[in-house]
């Protein structure tokens, strides 16, 4: 044993669910107060993580990935295959989260490698992911995998974002 943390990404299994739900809640909480996060958390963030992750794990057009560091679950991702009107398949990373203390050791990369491999195996023509404005670390992370901006969503609040 070299003392170097072992990062592993693998498809999630049922016994991972409770930990994945906790990570999904952490992911939304972390982004909610970021620039763009208030609207994102109300429109695109995972609602009811327990039910939606069970559904994702059972859906052949989705893959849920568990990220482990030294056998401890500290990250997860969800990839969805979108079937477009023209018949093409687009992979969409709906969730990708690694606990802050576990970042920078290659776990996110291991998770993303598994997502890209899955999308490639399924015959997707591309892969999309979302980075909130100002979240340079997320943007830079995705750029290392060749993802670049293809659209910008602009927004103007007309009142309090609130609940």
What features would you describe in this structure?
There is one protein chain. Helices cover 34% and strands 24% of the residues. The chain is an alpha+beta fold and 163 residues long. The chain has a single domain (7-143), classed as Gcn5-related N-acetyltransferase (GNAT) (Aminopeptidase). Strands 1-2-3-4-5 form a 5-stranded mixed sheet, with helices on both faces. Strand 4, helix 4 (107-121) and strand 5 (126-129) form a beta-alpha-beta unit. The model has no long low-confidence stretch (mean pLDDT 94).
Keywords:
single chain; 163 residues; alpha+beta; Aminopeptidase; 5-stranded mixed beta sheet; 5 strands
The helix content, as a percent range, equals 25-40%
Total number of domains: 1
Structural class computed from helices and strand pairing: alpha+beta
Order of helices and strands: EHHHEEEHEH
Would you spell out the secondary-structure blueprint of this structure?
Elements: E1 7-11, H1 17-32, H2 37-43, H3 49-58, E2 62-69, E3 72-83, E4 89-98, H4 107-121, E5 126-129, H5 136-143
Parallel strand pairs: 4-5
Antiparallel strand pairs: 1-2, 2-3, 3-4
Helix pairs in contact: 1-3
